[in-house]
Amino acid sequence: MTGCGPRDGRYNPSNFQVRGALAPPDVVLPARGPGPIGLSVARGDSSLCCFIAPHATLLVRKTGPADDLRINVYVPDAAIFRRTPQTLRITFPGGEVRTIGGLTPGQHTNGVPLPKSVRGLVGTVKIGLTSSIEYVPEGGGDAQHYALVLVSIFFQ
Fold it and tell me: pTM of the prediction?
């Protein structure tokens, strides 16, 4: 259920190789034009596969009625996250907000109850993701700011 490689207890985003364009399966990547805002989509070999920016907007495919948004994230084992857990704020169409807190280093799977206005929608749904902590990977070669690794996001 991932778009960026194997995700188990031994997962480390710096120890795998990817080829082609990869993203979580339900994130819509248009063939042309602008894609998701704030999602580092892997092209070729990349250790930053599927990192999201501190403020990201994703288009997530929704094929039918659902009660929850399922989000699986990986928080890097970095000093900043060992000191202070990451918090992820999710904004739905219509402006309703849900929050996931206490995201410490490691993998986390959360079910977020959908607002009533979103439960019956079908198609592409715009989801805003805002993180409390910005992260710059050590030795990443750039000053890009990230929040966490998005392993999967889908409606259920």
Answer: 0.77
